[in-house]
Amino acid sequence: MKPAVAALCLLFLSFLRSAYSGEQKLFTSIISFGASYADTGNLVRWEDPVLESVNLRNPPYGETFFGHPSGRATDGRIVLDFIADALGLPLVPPVLAKGQNFSTGVNFAVAGAPALNLTYLEGQNITVEIPINISLNDQLGWFEKLKPSLCSDKTPGSSDCFRESLFIMGQFGGNEYLNILVNSNMTLEQARSYVPEIVNTISNGVERLIHHGANLHQISKAQETKVRYSSATEYIVVADIIPVGCMPVILATHPSPGTADYDRYGCLKSFNAGLSRHQNALLRRRVEALRERYPHAKIAFAEHYRPVVAFLHDPGRFGELQPSASLLIF
């Protein structure tokens, strides 16, 4: 596993320790959505000739922990694996795993997944590297189809089916930017124009999950609409995006002749500001609005941008993280 990813995993653990009360577990299952940072084996199980050359099936993937390719886009474990371990749960199985028991969790994330639908992106003349229907909306659709079986041991119509589930909305947006900037040779300004739509899609996805988690009642207060839960509390983690201007593929395909265009870490400042920080700021505001609208939902904002910058600033200090360090902000 890359050192930065390993450190990200460790930063989650301080929050996860609070998921226990003595011997009692707050979470009994994990339900995950996302792309390559969260995929535990869905892409490699996807049956489509266009994916025959996917290299996740070959070494060095998986070699440092599993001893063989595991379907993860890393040589070891991903953040989700460490979260499950910290909660005392089994590793979260991919939804495409045949004959799998999903009672302790299910993973809908697929490497290469965009937030926006494939048909929409192709309609915008964007060349999609993995042209299959794996967008956030597609993943939510799979969840909705599977929901009856996930709730089969609950009382019909019960509002607490996912009361002990941790929902993780992983990073989305990065694949759009790579498809726009690298595969479609479009400009930074063109990529930036899609940021509000990506954020809106993520926010709508979180709200969609909240509506699946409990019976809701509309109430009006001070000329604004809020939603009150009938009983259940839902826990959702929403991830921000890493610095796009620090990604090797962006640095390789969009070099700048001016040293002033790079920050002290060698990252492209305009890409970080125009895409990552812009998306993260908009997404944070949307998360805050969702907290206000759904006061009984526990929505955490998981930071990836700032920790990655911290890795670049002082890579030597990681591996000895302070126990209080946390990526999750309620």
UniProtKB/TrEMBL annotation:
<keyword id="KW-0732">Signal</keyword>
<keyword id="KW-0325">Glycoprotein</keyword>
<dbReference type="Pfam" id="PF00657">
    <property type="entry name" value="Lipase_GDSL"/>
</dbReference>
<comment type="similarity">
    <text>Belongs to the 'GDSL' lipolytic enzyme family.</text>
</comment>
<dbReference type="InterPro" id="IPR001087">
    <property type="entry name" value="GDSL"/>
</dbReference>
<feature type="signal peptide">
    <location>
        <begin position="1"/>
        <end position="21"/>
    </location>
</feature>
<dbReference type="InterPro" id="IPR036514">
    <property type="entry name" value="SGNH_hydro_sf"/>
</dbReference>
<protein>
    <recommendedName>
        <fullName>GDSL esterase/lipase</fullName>
    </recommendedName>
</protein>
